[in-house]
Amino acid sequence: MNAEAALAWLETIIPAHTGERLSDLQKVILQQVWLGRKYLDIAHAYGCTEGHVKDVGSHLWKLLSQVLRQKITKSNCRATLERVLRKTTAISGLIDYSASNLCLTSPPTPLLQGEGSKIPPFPVFDTLRERREGGLGGLSLQTIPTLEDTNFIGRQDAIAHLNALVNQGAKVIVIQGEGGLGKTTLAQQYLQTQGFDLVLELLMAKEAQNITSVERVVEEWLKQDFGEEPGMEFGVTLGRLKRQLHNRRIGVLIDNLEPALDQQGRLISPHRSYVELLRVLADVRVQSVTLITSRDRLCESGLNIHHYRLPSLDESAWLTFFSHRGLTIDSPTLQQIHRTYGGNAKAMGILCGAIQEDFGGNLALYWQENHADPLAATDLKNLAVSQINRLQNLDPQAYRLLCRLGCYRYQDIPKIPSTGLCCLLWDVPKTEHRQIIASLRNRSLIECEQGEYWLHPVIRSEAIARLRISDEWEITNHKAAEFWTDSVTQIATFKDALQALEAYYHYIEINAFELAGKVILKSRNNQWQQFLPLGSTLYRMGLIQPILMAINQVVNNIEPDQSIIELYNILGDLYWITGKISQAIACQEKTINLATQALKSLVPQPENKHQVYYLRMLEVDSLLSIGLYKIDLWELEEAAQLFQQVIYLAQNTDHHRWAEKASVCLALVNSYLALYDSSHALADVAYQNITNEKLVKTGRLAYFMQILGQTYINLGDFTRATAMFEQALTFAEASHYMQVKAKTLNSLAEIHRQHQDYQLALTHHQEAIELLEKIGAKCDLAEAYFQLALTYEKMSTSNECKINFSRAIQLFTEIKAPKQVAKISQSTSWLTIGKT
User: Fold this and answer.
1) Taking burial as the number of CB atoms within 10 A of a residue's CB, which of 126, 187, 227, 385 is the most buried?
2) Up-side HSE of residue 760: CA atoms within 13 Å toward CB?
3) Which H or E run includes 198?
4) What is the DSSP letter of 223?
5) What is the distance between the alpha carbons of residues 139 and 129, in angstroms, rounded to a whole number?
6) H or E element: which one contains 525?
7) Residues 216, 420: contact at Cβ < 8 Å?
8) Pairing state between β 531-533 and 523-526
9) CA 306 – CA 376 distance, rounded (Å)
């Protein structure tokens, strides 16, 4: 049986009953609905609105109901027409006659079942070719267009998976997934294309109170589809159905099962008899295959049922769908939209309509306007709301967890471990945690992979909206922040660092700025075997911009206290790295002033010992930092004075480590000032200290190792310089210390230049520049371009030399380092190049 044959028969009987003939669009609707197409696709192909197709379709179903004296709808038209045609012998003859004389064609096979499918354009409707053939009015059957099956894009693997389950003996398969994923489309397509003798469909009601009793369903199947009377008792009726399933290859679709399931995924009490039907359908001796679609997992332990979790459509499927409808697409925008909606098929169709109608088919324009609100389209919002409302009614505890999960950002850390879910169940006994999480998984409201969880962006948008207006907004963010803080005890990787910073965002959401500041200042052991605040560790790893913005947001919203002193200290280094040296110096001076004031107010008591140590440490550290900033400004004499001051304050005290660091820095400055004897003496002491076995293994002085290496370059001792750089580079790469790695590579390039190995020098220069541009280290980048220019000078490549000198001067000018600009401009090579 095919759509054309049914249409041929209807064209002979409708005029006799009503005096009407089917319109062109009604014929197309009948043919394409027969094939499982949706109104939206029919509208796109025909060139009208979806609303118009729905109106014409509604009139068609009423007309057919009147003629056939049976209730005809879009969902049952095919099954009903097939049943009526089979029962009418005279009509069967007409079908044979029509098929042989009118060249009726069989339904087209799906063209789009996965990647690599070639999609010809939609056929154009040629209303001028209307003619009458064999008593048919309007469009001939040959001119009824075949629509591409764009409802079935990207599901080749899904069909293969279902076939594999069937071949392994599966009789009942639950296709599970969130709303709008395409479960029903897949099930219908599978059952229509796998050669079943008959397909039985049962569409469950949306509301539990409207579900049809299983007794009535089975009776209807027996009467209408098998021509057999049901028994007086349900057991007898099921027995008769089972015999039919033994004799013929039947496909069964039970669509949208979840309204019939309770909180545990079992069939609700009024409809427990459905278990008996499923037991018959799952019998290994029947020839039937039953597909059940459900958002929730079916958890009836006594049934032999297989579950298939339907994945979302991949990006290539979305590209095919949008391209086929003439949208203007750019890949980056498509990637963002696909990621935002998780490849949801329903979202894809809804978005396509909105983009066509309101933005002229321009994908980028639509996203520019709506990216901040993924639920802007009403249909999308309804899709999420309906699922969450149902959860609220069925399982209030799981509903609360879902809303609370909306507080997580799913950005830098896109997936949450199970402990991150459990921490939000603070008011529920631990023994119930697993069951509540399973409730969300079984209803496809939370995604899960290898024990980690996340919310679909559309679900998350609705969940967080509900959480914000509840009385749990603050406590939920507090609990989430505490979870992130407690979950990271040591920072060894980028993930550790970003995970620890997540707590900051939760406190900012509830305006708890002091707590947010404490997140930045919380010290942990790191990969350099140091016990450093999170903020310091983050910028050493190259994560400069996130922590820069975070500290600024905190210091502008809290009162001055001890924590703000350290925040200014870290903020100064961040400004320095990004080339804002005047702001960096101002932050360190503020740190020194605040620390000095705090020390004056402290009464000398044993209980204040740690606080005094802490404030003194900030003082000397800020002085050391300003000295480093002065080197980048090429204000060498001032830098030397600052390092000498640190040595004076810290030597042979609890802060002696800062004296050692300052000695390394002073050795470098003296080498620039041509004070070689003093520089050599300081460098050799530092070299002995750093090459101490313990310090070499820890790598906590990696930054100062590369400073010492640079000093030895200036002193002409390339052997010791190389030894220091190799150690620094090893630690930098192992611990993701991007700034040290880049500075070390730049210095190694200098050594290769001295040895006339220019290609290796250029390789190191380029890698250093790429790293520095990536992390935004402007001062170091200016120096890197200067050194690259010097290498090109040695190679006598004047044009490249000139370009890189110019880049260095431009950056040093932006940094406001006039002495650096003067140093470059006074170079003989630069003056010579400037005249060419």
Assistant:
1) 187
2) 11
3) strand 198-203
4) I
5) 7
6) strand 523-526
7) no
8) antiparallel
9) 37
Report the amino acid identity of residue 541. Answer: M
Phi, then psi, of 105 in degrees rounded to 5: -95, 155
Task: Give φ, ψ of 318 to 5 degrees.
Answer: -65, -40
- What is d(CA 176, CA 184) in angstroms, rounded to the nearest whole number? 10
Q: How far is residue 793 from each of residues 426, 787, 789, 820, measured CA to CA in Å?
A: 66, 10, 6, 18
Q: Tell me the C-alpha distance between 497 and 524, whole Å.
A: 10
Q: Which residue has the higher pLDDT, 700 or 528?
A: 700
Non-local CB neighbours of 477 within 8 Å, separated by 6+ positions: 407, 506, 507, 509, 510
Tell me the C-alpha to C-alpha distance, in Å, between residue 589 and each of 161, 433, 572, 614, 665: 67, 51, 9, 16, 20
Query: What pairing do the DSSP bridges indicate for beta strands 416-417 and 452-454?
Result: antiparallel
Name the average pLDDT for the chain: 83
SS3 category, 700:
coil
Task: Using alpha carbons, select from 626, 608, 607 the residue that is nearest to residue 568.
Answer: 626
Q: How far is it, in rounded angstroms, from Cα 724 to Cα 719? A: 9
Amino acid at site 695: L
Is 53 within 8 Å of 26 (Cβ atoms)?
Answer: no
- Between 27-41, 478-492, 630-644, the lowest mean confidence (pLDDT) is in 27-41
| DSSP bridge partners of 254 | 202, 292
Quick: pLDDT tens for 307-358.
999 998 999 888 888 888 788 888 889 998 888 888 888 788 778 877 876 7
**CA atoms 573, 574, 578, 579: torsion sign:** negative
Q: Which two tokens stand for residue 522?
A: 């919380």
User: Which residues are 491's β-sheet partners?
Assistant: 526
Q: Which whole number is the average pLDDT over 179-194?
A: 86
Residue type, 714: N
Distances (CA, A) of 437 to 401, 405, 422, 430, 446: 8, 11, 9, 12, 9
